[in-house]
Design brief:
This protein is an all-beta fold. The chain has no helices and eleven strands.
């Protein structure tokens, strides 16, 4: 499985960005797709995830009310709409795929496949 994230960039505080991630070369199917991020000097952290079959979602508290994750199964795409961005959202954002339902979809170590990351920078 190959995951290709795109859509990052530089935006001012309060602005919006939409990240996209295409999952290709899939053998079988993925159970869930998620977005994670790593800010400078910090550990990678969970942002949002979605179950491909049901559309069920999970958000980090920092993302609730501002970010929306969605998927297009026909296109093997997952999106992250980010609104009201803040400087603390500055990070490299990664999409990830989970093959089987083993752990909660907000648990990083449950994910089997990772994209290369896309930089999001929010200026104050």
């Amino acid at each position: 499985v190959q995951l290709q994230a795109s859509g990052g960039g530089l935006v001012q505080t309060g602005g919006s960005l939409t990240l996209s991630c295409e999952a290709s070369r899939i053998t079988g199917s993925l159970y869930a797709l998620g977005w994670f991020r790593r800010a400078p000097g910090k550990e990678r952290e969970f942002v949002a995830a979605i179950v491909r079959s049901t559309g069920g979602t999970n958000y980090a508290s920092s993302a609730k009310g501002r970010f929306t994750i969605s998927r297009d199964n026909a296109k093997n795409m997952v999106y992250l709409q980010m609104n009201d961005l803040k400087p603390e959202d500055t990070a490299v954002y990664y999409c990830a795929g989970e093959r089987n339902k083993i752990l909660r979809i907000d648990i990083i170590r449950g994910y089997d496949y990772w994209g290369q990351g896309t930089q999001v920078t929010v200026s104050s």
